[in-house]
Amino acid sequence: MILLTGATGKTGSATAKALNEKGITFRALIRNEEKRGDIESLGGEVVIGSIENKEAVDQSMVDVETALILLPNSENQLSLEKQLVDSAKQAGANRVVKMSSIEATPDATSPIPKLHLESEEYIKQSGLSWTMIKPNFYMQNLLASAGTIKDQGKIFLPMGEGKTGMIDTTDVGKVLAKVLSEDGHESMNHEITGPEILSFNEVAEIFSKGLDKQVDYVDVPLAAYKETLGQFLTNQWHLDAVIDLFKGIADGGIEEKTDTYSELMGESPKSLSEFISENSFIFKS
Ligand SMILES: NC(=O)c1ccc[n+]([C@@H]2O[C@H](COP(=O)([O-])OP(=O)(O)OC[C@H]3O[C@@H](n4cnc5c(N)ncnc54)[C@H](OP(=O)(O)O)[C@@H]3O)[C@@H](O)[C@H]2O)c1
Question: 43 lies in which domain range?
Fold first, then answer.
């Protein structure tokens, strides 16, 4: 049995869908009864409970062979991931697949990449077989700019000249479904970028072409951006951590794309222009 955590979120739901398309059944630990139907419609078995509830976690691990550890960023993420690993081990699971990030490198100083790396180390020490999935910046993060793209033709972000190799979460879900359901990925770090390394000025140019209207990138000073983001992200740890992550992008970001997606999937990952075209109804007024 495959266990998914985070199955109702961006990456987890893409993973559940991709598993269903492959005809593979799975179990999901979810906290919201109202989302049960979404999982069951994809052939998934549901355990209702919070990741913070050890009893629910232990219950979800019964007869699990491979567990996906996919948690949202929070101050408690590391301790909750450790609890999941301990529970998987105790239940006799064979392997954990951890959703990490490409920035989680030994020289990372930012809180989110650092906690991912520490969690990776814990998993490697656990004696369980493991695979790390390490994507770059999600194209779906741009959906937060849909309103200003639509109304003002502007993307307000604090990324300076920094670059990312944006990847669509659907593609990450496909990789996860493959890795969770196959052997041969043990002790591997799958670093995943999209097909192009782009600055945010280049991102705006691609939006202009895709939407057939002028879209500009406005480089917002980090302090001003933090003030705006603080209206939505009310947890101080999370706000500081996201700002620190964005500062890392502004300081340079990712310089080289990886071929991991095409090597694993035998096809190219989605380009930004394809993503814009698929989601044009969200970006167009
Ligand atoms: N965004 C990026 O660009 C990016 C890039 C690389 C890596 N990552 C990593 O991806 C991870 C986040 O993935 P995501 O963006 O797919 O997450 P997401 O969309 O925020 O979804 C979070 C999931 O966790 C579930 N969840 C939260 N608290 C829970 C609890 N107490 N008990 C049970 N379930 C709980 C949520 O359930 P509900 O539906 O009930 O809320 C949801 O299914 C992070 O670790 C991040 O570092 C993100």
Answer: 2-135+169-192+257-264
- The answer, as to whether pTM is greater than 0.85, is yes
pLDDT digits (tens, 9 = 90+) for 239-282: 999 999 999 999 998 889 999 999 999 999 999 999 999 999 99
94 CA → ligand 1 middle, Å? 23
Cα separation, 169 vs 189, whole angstroms: 18
Q: Is there an atom of ligand 1 within 6 Å of 166 CB?
A: no
114: CATH: 3.40.50.720
**34 exposed, middle or buried (CB, 10 Å; 0-12, 13-18, 19+)?**
exposed
Closest CA to 144 of 279, 2, 1: 279
The number of domains in the chain is 1
Q: How far does residue 213's CA lie from ligand 1's centre (Å)?
A: 33
